[in-house]
């Protein structure tokens, strides 16, 4: 019996069939890879060191392995496999490493800007949460998060308030949602770790096009994890994590403050506007 089969057999006592399949297939593919590339001792040690250093960078605030998965295209591959595509549902994209749970629930039209927001032109994002038949989904939980002007997320940048540019909103009876923020900026993914070294070595860009993250949950529907990207961003064609999808690119318009914006959203100055409807797919019975 060859070595690979011997190792695979040594895991045959795992009772859960799926877990056994996951582990033994991994071993087969890993052995196949090693057989193909025939690493030198030094290369093998370097691989171990790379994985060790990547692990050391992970803690509550930073997840270098998710970033590694992202830049290797694995996150988008998992996304492609898991989320059945139909023409109507809103496409999903990478979750990314910067989500923080349990952000405050803010009222319809509320702002997620906590730090220094009065200096930047507001952006109103609004639309509806709907099912694939166009019916409103009420009470959907919408988590949003984005970077500050310096291209960093709260949590990553300790100078920002914990809940700066993050918040949770609930869709209304007619499925409508709205919140205020400011235009997102393009930003480099953290390049001071192993992932940055890898991208630098490959002469790859570390930039991501400007985007706002969304996680939308509603009972009876598949959770949607996605972004909205800004039309015209210079990095749309070479996102470091391969996350851009055409239908997630949106145009923003310039709006004058008027009676309606003042009364409905408290917007007393001119603002940017993005209107976008999200379509969720039901969980199959
Ligand atoms: Fe992001």
UniProtKB/TrEMBL annotation:
It holds the Pfam family Dioxygenase_C. Coiled coil: none annotated. Keywords: Dioxygenase, Iron, Metal-binding, Oxidoreductase. Its cofactor is Fe(3+). It comes from the Bacteria. Residues 125-153 form the Intradiol ring-cleavage dioxygenases domain. PROSITE patterns: INTRADIOL_DIOXYGENAS (PS00083). Belongs to the intradiol ring-cleavage dioxygenase family. This is Intradiol ring-cleavage dioxygenases domain-containing protein. The lineage of its organism: Bacteria, Pseudomonadati, Pseudomonadota, Betaproteobacteria, Neisseriales.
